[in-house]
Write a structure and sequence with these properties.
Elements (H helix, E strand, L loop, with lengths): L16 E3 L1 H10 L5 H18 L3 E5 L5 E6 L7 E6 L7 H11 L5 E2 L3 H9 L4 E2 L13 E6 L1 H10 L1 E3 L14 E6 L6 E7 L2 E4 L13 H10 L6 E6 L5 H15 L4 E5 L16 H5 L4 H11 L8 H10 L3 E3 L13 E5 L7 H8 L7 E6 L17 H9 L5 E6 L6 H9 L1
Parallel strand pairs: 1-4, 5-6, 7-9, 12-16, 12-17, 13-14, 13-15, 15-16
Antiparallel strand pairs: 2-3, 3-4, 8-11, 9-10, 10-11
Helix pairs in contact: 6-7, 7-9, 11-12
């Protein structure tokens, strides 16, 4: 839980938080890891160090040998963080945790560790998952409203409508897509986007090599090319065209000179190794993780009948500076300016990692987050469809005028993949 969200110790409102010795020792062991885990561990220690340095703590020695560091949270009446120093304990960590919670009637064990939760439930111990960042229903970025035919005609005539004139019982957010459908004739429709308390007709799309095949792709193109939206999130099943669309727009803007380069990256999970464990230079190490991008480079850059190996194609465009490949392991401390940034497989980021990545976006840059937040596409052991970084970003940023989201519902890769997604 602490690695998943280093600020989780502040999220429990009226409850005291107890960090037991095995948890502290495990954080200490993991703090030197060269990925997001080590970084999160050190953030936890920074939080605790800051609280202690403010002087709001006491040490209490109990009869059973426990030594507690009791930290009084500032501006919170009655709330404490208790750190247990069980220096002489030689028991197995999980056993110690369960034993401690079982001995304290009002204690609740909160953990992202599913096996530990199962062991706790078997002992009738009160255990819960960490749910502060959980999204219960994913915002789709699209809404259909049934209206009078006259309203649709007025919309086309004026190319906009005040939101106050559109009957709806649901909240509409800035940059949300809306389909107006006639109550008398369902085939009479209009597509609009919410902008400054109005429904506006979408701008015509620029000429690009890849054309939209569906309504979803058309809408995605429109938010990807919109210069007023520096953050775009796209979710959907495999084969819906998310990555290809983003790379098409990124390449288009780089060719026009609106961005210096297109930066592409993805979380390094699912392969069983960190980038540092692989031989070769950074681009060579990244190659197993970026093969989906290389496939799309072939579609974008090769003419019909032309052939190039993945290595040659990648080198050709990284050498020209139009495409840059980066490992998310190394993004901390960087500032991405004048770049079109694509983060694929974003469902494998934790909410805290997502925040760290988004804060790297500098001036005149656009970031596109892509992923499939379903169980079969999440490789991170402690993430779920409701608690991964992609859905967290979608939910928290849906009220921002600088962000837009769309969920794809139709597979475009092939009829076979459509049936696979539907039936398997």
């Amino acid at each position: 839980m602490l690695i998943h969200d280093p600020d989780s110790i502040f999220r429990f409102e009226e409850h005291d938080v107890v960090v037991l010795a095995p948890v502290y020792e495990e954080l200490d062991k993991l703090k030197s890891r060269g990925n997001g885990v080590g970084w999160a561990c050190n953030l936890v220690f920074q939080r605790l160090e800051r609280l202690i340095s403010e002087g709001n703590y006491d040490k209490v020695k109990e009869d059973d040998g426990h030594t507690w560091t009791v930290i009084r949270l500032p501006k919170q009446d009655g709330r404490l963080i208790l750190h247990d120093h069980e220096e002489d304990a030689k028991v197995y960590a999980d056993h110690y945790l369960l034993k401690w919670v079982a001995a304290h009637e009002k204690a609740i064990l909160v953990t992202k560790d599913r096996p530990l939760r199962i062991r706790a439930m078997k002992r009738d111990i009160h255990v819960e998952d960490y749910t502060n960042d959980r999204v219960h229903e994913l915002y789709t970025g699209f809404c259909e409203l049934v209206v009078d035919a006259d309203l649709i005609e007025t919309f086309y005539l004026n190319q906009k409508l005040p939101l106050a004139s559109v009957p709806t019982e649901t909240d509409l957010y800035e940059n949300q897509f809306v389909q107006l459908t006639s109550a008398l004739n369902p085939k009479q429709t209009a597509l609009a986007i919410v902008k400054k308390q109005h429904l506006l007709l979408s701008e015509p799309l620029p000429e690009m090599k890849i054309k939209p095949r569906s309504r979803d792709q058309h809408l995605a193109f429109s938010m990807l090319v919109d210069p007023q939206i520096p953050m775009v999130t796209i979710s959907g099943d495999a084969g819906t065209g998310k990555t290809l669309l983003a790379m098409t727009v990124g390449d288009h803007f780089v060719r026009l000179g609106k961005f210096h380069s297109m930066l592409i990256t993805r979380p390094m999970v699912g392969m069983g190794k960190d980038i540092g464990a692989l031989p070769g230079e950074k681009e060579e190490k990244m190659r197993p993780w970026i093969s989906p991008f290389v496939d799309n480079l072939k579609t974008l850059y090769l003419k019909e009948g032309e052939f190039a190996s993945s290595k040659d194609l990648l080198e050709r465009f990284t050498d020209k500076g139009r495409v840059e490949i980066e490992a998310l392991t190394y993004v901390r401390g960087r500032t991405w300016e004048n770049q079109f940034i694509i983060v694929d497989e974003a469902q494998n980021l934790t909410p805290h990692e997502m925040k760290a990545i988004l804060t790297r976006v500098g001036r005149n840059s656009k970031i596109v987050l892509i992923g499939d937040p379903t169980d079969n596409q999440i490789d991170h052991p402690f993430l779920t469809p409701q608690s991964n970084g992609l859905v967290y970003a979608v939910e928290r940023m849906k009220t921002s005028a600088l962000a837009a989201h769309l969920h794809f519902s139709r597979v475009e890769r092939s009829p076979l993949v459509q049936d696979i997604v539907r039936l398997l």
